[in-house]
Amino acid sequence: MSKIGFIGLGIMGSPMAGHLAAAGHTVTGFDLSEPALAKLVESGGQRAANVAEAVAGAEVVITMLPQDEHVLAVTTDVIAAGGDGLLLIDMSTIRPETSVAVTESAARKGIRVLDAPVSGGEAGAKQASLSIMVGGSDADFAEALPLFEVLGKTIVHVGPTGAGQVVKAANQLVVGGIYALVSEAIVLLEAAGVDARAGLDVLAGGLAANRILDLKRESMIARNFQPGFRIDLHHKDMGIVLAAARQADVSLPMAALVAQLVAAARAMGHGSLDHSALLKVVETLSGR
Ligand code: NAD
Questions:
Q1: Which of 53, 117, 209, 229 has the most CB atoms at less than 10 Å from its CB?
Q2: Interval 33-80: pLDDT, tens
Q3: What are residue 62's DSSP bridge partners?
Q4: H or E element that contains 112
Q5: Whose CA is nearest to atom 1 of ligand 1?
Q6: ipTM score of the complex?
Q7: Please, what are the domains in the chain?
C-alpha cells in the first residue's frame, strides 16, 4: 500500500481519491475548496492544510487540476516540498510542453513525473472505469500501474513524457466533434418534426453508435446541461489541440471548427455548463 498525496479534489479528483483510499492506500489530500476536503475525509482520506503537508511523507503525489497555470503553481510547491525518489503523477489535461517543463524541473530534485490524463468523464471517475493515457519512462509506468488499475480500465503507456497529453488532445478533438454532430442530428430531427428520441435510439444501434449517444442522448434531448465536463475546460482543451497541431505542422480543419463552436458556447455565457451544451450553439445557428 502506498502513501499518496492527492491535490485537486474536484469533479474528477474527488471520486478518484476516494477509490484509492477505499483500496487501502493512505491518501492525504489538498484542495482550495473546503467542501472538497470534507468529502475526502468522508471517503476515508485525510485532509492537508496545504500542498507541502499533502506531500510530506508521500511516496506518490497525484495532481488533478483544471489547467496549465494551476499545475505549474502546484507542482512548483510539490517539487519544493518533495524529495529524491518521489513519483509525481499529473492526471490533469494540460499542454504537452508544460508536462515536459514540469518533468525537467522535477528531475533536478530527483523527482520522477508521469503525465497521465484521463478520459471517461465524471461517470468514468465514479465507476473507476477511466481510460488513462500515460507518458513517461517504462519503470515509472510499471510502478504507477497498480494505482492506475484502481482508477481505470483501459490503461496504456503511449510514449515518453508529454505523449499522454498528445493522446488526450486527440481524444478531446474526437469528443468535441461527436458532440457537435449529435447536436446537429438533434436539431435536424426536431426541426423536421421527427421524434429525436426515436431517431437517436436507431442511430445508437447502427454505424453511428458511440458512447456519447449512449450516455448523453437522453440528457441532451431533455436540455439538461449540468456538468459533467464544463465548456470552459473543453475550450481550454481545444486550445491544446490547435497548439499541438501547429507544433506537429499539420492541418486539422475539423479541429478548428470544433474549437470555434466551443468558443461560441463560451461567448454565449455557457462556460459553466456541460460540453453537451454545444447543442445550444447549433440551435442558435438555426434560429431555434
Ligand atoms: P474541477 O474544476 O471540478 O476540479 C479541479 C479542482 O482543483 C477544484 O476542486 C479546485 O478547487 C482545485 N484547485 C484549483 N487550484 C488549486 C490549487 N492551487 N491547489 C489545490 N487545489 C486547487 O475540474 P475537473 O472537472 O475535476 O477536471 C480536472 C482536470 O481533469 C482538468 O484538467 C480536466 O480537463 C480534466 N478532465 C475532466 C473530466 C471531466 O469530465 N470533468 C474528464 C477528463 C479529464
A1: 117
A2: 999 999 999 999 999 999 999 999 999 999 999 999 999 999 999 999
A3: 6, 89
A4: strand 112-115
A5: 10
A6: 0.99
A7: 3-159 (3.40.50.720), 166-285 (1.10.1040.10)
